[in-house]
């Protein structure tokens, strides 16, 4: 049996099924096979195939997650998916060059979740920011407002919540782009039999998937709350985006487990470097953490009160924080014997290590993306001090400062960042948020999300919030609960014609009903 795949309950006609390969009584482990699960024409389950729908979920209910039970079904040898491993016509097994090749698909999905987390948060913020530009409330008691209510975006707390979340959204989108490019390079290598990048990509995508899905859903919920009662309503649009995205904290691995996978990889890499005395495989920003506590104690932040924080200053602070956590974990694991039991005792701090690693990557990828854009603009003889680049630089600085302040204890406990520097960071954060007041609408419009895609009464591009709310409430929507003539819901209405067109384009004769 298999539980949970999307499109299994009602839509799919075939699936890739993982089953044990046994030849001449010898078990060669799990391999992928192509299996037809529904008959052409009728869409009924094939003989020996039982299918069912798992029913409503907390969200993502447009996807028909289901179960599959296979009973006495023969899969021909030709339907084994043999790019990596294969079985000859004579029954000889030919293994893959590396057993980890089949992880490439899972890594692709995790890399996609990193990108999608930033985009989903961007959708929610598009709604919340547009609504905040229309909704007026409060301010009538403030003398400078002359008895008039003000747009809620001009309340300091509202602007703080939405602008810092917007900076996070952009950081995740930049990192998602980097991860997608890294996955493509890894996949190309895997096809050619080279798996040197696989372990790094797997570990990095695991921790980033966990971090970004946690942060994205938390900030989406905050954006929903920032919309008041209309954020609670389904027609506000954020509820659907949020509940759909909630699956990401569990799908492709529960987040705590994924953080542990990342930290185990980091520890394995560090342990090997300490054993060989070769630190070349260790990022330069982490090497000081392996040279004794006294080295880290001497590192002090270069934040200068009264001046903007440079990318080098912020990145150095995040490297220092990660190096400090890494040093503590390595010391404790080695003290406890260095094996699996030792790691089990340090799991809490290991999760924190993965999070610090991911936070640093978000910041570095944001700045690296901006550096690439700046280089392109210079090559085209453009002005880097005009257009979108200066705005995104302020957004990147805001992201770094805000994430530092949100976890200030990590940066101050060993004296790396002083109290005076923390005070300046708070002041600088306020300055940046105020300077971005008239940029945030352009920053969410840059996502280029249509009203149809947002499906929100309060996040409309034209600002007609209250007219739209009235129309949604007045006309509503009707939902069909069964298919035509009692058939499979969605098949007769949609899938039947889609599959027929696919057969026509591929020159396949229409099956008998």
TrEMBL record:
<keyword id="KW-0576">Peroxisome</keyword>
<dbReference type="GO" id="GO:0033540">
    <property type="term" value="P:fatty acid beta-oxidation using acyl-CoA oxidase"/>
</dbReference>
<dbReference type="Pfam" id="PF22924">
    <property type="entry name" value="ACOX_C_alpha1"/>
</dbReference>
<dbReference type="GO" id="GO:0005777">
    <property type="term" value="C:peroxisome"/>
</dbReference>
<keyword id="KW-0443">Lipid metabolism</keyword>
<dbReference type="InterPro" id="IPR002655">
    <property type="entry name" value="Acyl-CoA_oxidase_C"/>
</dbReference>
<dbReference type="Pfam" id="PF01756">
    <property type="entry name" value="ACOX"/>
</dbReference>
<feature type="domain" description="Acyl-CoA oxidase C-alpha1">
    <location>
        <begin position="103"/>
        <end position="267"/>
    </location>
</feature>
<dbReference type="InterPro" id="IPR036250">
    <property type="entry name" value="AcylCo_DH-like_C"/>
</dbReference>
<dbReference type="InterPro" id="IPR055060">
    <property type="entry name" value="ACOX_C_alpha1"/>
</dbReference>
<dbReference type="GO" id="GO:0003997">
    <property type="term" value="F:acyl-CoA oxidase activity"/>
</dbReference>
<dbReference type="GO" id="GO:0055088">
    <property type="term" value="P:lipid homeostasis"/>
</dbReference>
<protein>
    <submittedName>
        <fullName>Peroxisomal acyl-coenzyme A oxidase 1</fullName>
    </submittedName>
</protein>
<keyword id="KW-0285">Flavoprotein</keyword>
<dbReference type="InterPro" id="IPR046373">
    <property type="entry name" value="Acyl-CoA_Oxase/DH_mid-dom_sf"/>
</dbReference>
<comment type="similarity">
    <text>Belongs to the acyl-CoA oxidase family.</text>
</comment>
<dbReference type="InterPro" id="IPR009100">
    <property type="entry name" value="AcylCoA_DH/oxidase_NM_dom_sf"/>
</dbReference>
<keyword id="KW-0274">FAD</keyword>
<feature type="domain" description="Acyl-CoA oxidase C-terminal">
    <location>
        <begin position="311"/>
        <end position="475"/>
    </location>
</feature>
<keyword id="KW-0276">Fatty acid metabolism</keyword>
<dbReference type="GO" id="GO:0071949">
    <property type="term" value="F:FAD binding"/>
</dbReference>
<dbReference type="GO" id="GO:0005504">
    <property type="term" value="F:fatty acid binding"/>
</dbReference>
<keyword id="KW-0560">Oxidoreductase</keyword>
<dbReference type="InterPro" id="IPR012258">
    <property type="entry name" value="Acyl-CoA_oxidase"/>
</dbReference>
